[in-house]
Write a structure and sequence with these properties.
7-stranded mixed beta sheet, about 270 residues, alpha+beta, 7 strands, Helix-turn-helix transcriptional regulator, Lambda_DNA-bd_dom_sf, single chain, Cro/C1-type_HTH
């Protein structure tokens, strides 16, 4: 949903007029800004900067989303959710919308990150999310894990038979969040969506999950060990020994490092 600058300007004007302030006094109140700047906002020529927009919302006792999208603020959030997660249970949609509004976010980037967080942690898996596995190189003990009934490749899996470790790395162009995969592995209810179709010889092994941290851009390797008590994978300080060099799978280390360098050279415009 595009931002209507003219409509935002009208809402800013309404807040200013309700406070009975001139453009000059309103500008000084929110950061010693000149009258011309406030005038440009109200005429819809440009939008306030993120920090300033937040100040205006606070002064007007409205949410940032209302200031940007008016009465359609809920629709904007729902469109973001549906674009990322498809149709959801209305109860979950309502919960996420409420949480996002209470967070009082300003920028679309902040909103996007929080939507991703809720999708990762709150949206339950479906049959479409269930993983299937295919051996693509028997000599290298390399498997391809897919979702959407085998139609969408999501990760590579290498079985280190000697050390009893499963090495996993996202497939190129994978649309499955690594953080969501970690949630699957760590919960008994959702683990079955990952492990149900794993070959028996690969079940209940230690896991090293190789990826790029989306916040910092650094290589991230998550060491996990299967717990029979919880019937899921867990991270503890005791798992750190898995990060010692002799346990790492060099081809996956090299691949994620290449991706890190590529992302650094060509940062996402998102």
């Amino acid at each position: 949903m595009e931002i209507d600058k003219q409509a935002v300007g009208n809402r800013i004007r309404q807040i200013r007029q309700e406070l009975k302030l001139s453009m000059e006094k309103f500008g000084k109140l929110i950061g010693d800004l000149p009258r011309s700047t406030v005038n440009n906002w109200e005429r819809g020529i440009n939008l306030p900067k993120t920090e300033t927009l937040h100040q205006i919302a606070e002064i007007g006792h409205v949410t940032n989303e209302y200031l940007l999208y008016g009465e359609q603020e809920n629709q904007y959030i729902l469109e973001m959710l549906q674009k990322k997660a498809g149709k959801l249970d209305p109860k979950i949609e309502g919960l996420i919308v409420d949480e996002l509004k209470q967070a009082d976010l300003v920028s679309e980037k902040e909103m996007d990150r929080m939507v991703e967080f809720f999708i990762t942690n709150l949206v339950p898996p479906t049959e479409q999310d269930q993983f299937t596995f295919q051996c693509i190189d028997e000599k290298k003990r390399l498997y391809l894990g897919s979702t959407n009934f085998g139609k969408e490749a999501q990760l590579y899996l290498h079985h280190d038979n000697q050390n009893h470790i499963l090495h996993m790395m996202p497939f190129t162009f994978s649309n499955f969040s690594v953080d969501r995969l970690l949630v699957y592995l760590a919960n008994q209810e959702s683990y079955s969506y990952f492990g149900k179709h794993l070959p028996k010889k690969l079940v209940e092994k230690a896991i090293l999950l190789y990826s790029i941290n989306q916040s910092t851009g650094d290589v991230r390797i998550a060491p996990l060990v299967y717990s029979k008590e919880t019937a899921s994978y867990q991270y503890t300080e005791d798992n750190q020994y898995l990060l010692e060099q002799q346990y790492l799978y060099l081809p996956f280390v090299m691949e994620v490092e290449k991706e890190r360098l590529l992302n650094a050279a060509y940062p996402s415009s998102k």
